[in-house]
Amino acid sequence: MDTLDGMKTFVAVAQEGSFTAAGRRLNMSTKLVSKYVGQLEERLDTQLFNRTTRSVKLTDVGSAYLERCRPLLEQFDELEALVHERQRALAGPIRITAPTAFGSTRLVIAVRPFLAQHPRVSLDMKLTDHRVAVVEEGFDLAVRIGQRRDSTLIARRLAPMPLVVCASPEYLREHGRPAHPSALATHRCLIDENLTASSTWRFLVDGDELSVRVSGPVRANAPTAIAAMAVGGIGIALCPQYVVEAHLQAGRLERLFTAHTANHFGVYALYPPNRHLTARVRALIDHLAETFGSGRDHLAETFGSGREHLAETFGSGRGHLAEASGSGRGHLAEASGSDTE
Which distant-in-sequence residues (6+ apart) come within 8 Å of 102 by Cβ? Predict the structure, then answer.
């Protein structure tokens, strides 16, 4: 076993928390992963993991070794990337995480031309609505939806993301159409727990922010579930526009308060500030910014109405912003301390 291969295998097991998952990530058998880690432990004459039938946990020595391994492996990747860059061909893996709904629809459509253009680049995509620690779990890039906040991660805004208040025609016939956002306090509202302060919806009314405390019969941790409940006439929803756009166009949902803007989010690419961006990661970020902002992706049409407002709120989005990190819960955690699918 090459020591570098052993280190890569060890880091994969530590990040995945499983020999089997590490094998899938490295395209190796579980038996070979276990063998490599065992040989590394034998070489170092120490135990790196505490193994049980249910879990694999780092020992204290293993944790210290992991901290030293990461920068060494990153430097090796950078060295390889430098060679490939000089050969004018992007190559190597990119580990990226994104929210499930956005990642499995808009993001995969956006990255397909990039992969076609750079066939030596491979993507390891982890789509999840759970907490993700970008640095600790070894991700190169996270795509998140949220509001601007201070953070340890660096962010580049890719596109604005309007939030839409909507309800089904059936609900509006039965319960009446609220004429003003303040009327939501007396309506059945559907709560997306991924949003920060999920029971308080915020609007811009005549230039001032209005906060409305809402309640209702359903709480869920995914906006697609909230949208489905709204289509069924259960209540009024507050969702990212891309989630409900098809329902709005088909007439299954109707948009409310078009004269009063709900708070907007942004789509961000986030990465650790202390990690040198390889050429392939930098190229992917540039590609996503161009795709989501140029009109080649349907996001441009979806977000067109909110672009002017977000330009004032967030700035041009071309530079790097200090953006939220820490918990990484779902796809808002990095950007706003909350999640939206």
Answer: 143, 145, 242, 267, 331, 341
Cβ contact 292:143 at 8 Å: no
Query: 49: phi > 0 → left, psi -120 to 50 → alpha, else beta; which?
Result: beta
Question: Which of 263, 257, 213 minimizes the C-alpha distance to 240?
Answer: 263
Could you tell me the two tokens for 100?
A: 């499930």
Say how many C-beta atoms besides its own lie within 10 A of residue 192's C-beta.
28
CB 99 within 8 A of CB 70: no
Query: What are the average pLDDT values for consecutive 10-residue runs of the chain, which has 341 residues?
Result: 85 92 92 92 92 89 90 81 66 92 91 94 90 86 78 86 94 96 97 87 89 96 93 96 93 93 84 79 93 58 36 35 38 40 41
Q: How far apart are CA 65 and CA 157, in angstroms?
A: 35
Single pTM value for the model: 0.62
C-alpha pair distances (Å), 325 with each of 13, 145, 216, 271, 329: 23, 12, 30, 9, 9
Domains and CATH numbers, the chain: 3-68 (1.10.10.10), 89-161+265-336 (3.40.190.10), 163-262 (3.40.190.10)
